Amino acid sequence: QVQLVESGGGLVQAGGSLRLSCAASGRTFNNNYMGWFRQTPGEERNFVGGISWGGGRTVYQDSVKGRFTISRDNAKNTVYLQMNSLKPEDTAVYYCAARSFVVDSDDAGEYDYWGQGTQVTVSS
Questions:
Q1: Which of 2, 17, 56, 123 is deepest in the core (most CB within 10 A)?
Q2: Smallest Cα–Cα separation from 77: which of 115, 49, 108, 37?
Q3: Under 8 Å between Cβ of 8 and 18
């Protein structure tokens, strides 16, 4: 049984910061690509960014480049999303996800495991 559990969401004022965590359990993810997605009501789940579990290679959606940073702690089987300079348009439910492959992907349909999501609300 694979489980991904996100934490760290909450309410923050515009310009503030939050750090989301995604703890993986049930198997090792040394060869899995990990992604962060976000979703607002009535919208599709959109790719925020991703990281290769072993190599530390990251990629980001243009709207978050320079503000968000993805990192990982392999010893803890945990991926992080550091969000700085938050804007009201960053308000969403944030999900972490894992692929069963090493290759990058920004397509939610290509991810095999999902967390339950954590709400991030940025007030203006």
A1: 2
A2: 115
A3: yes
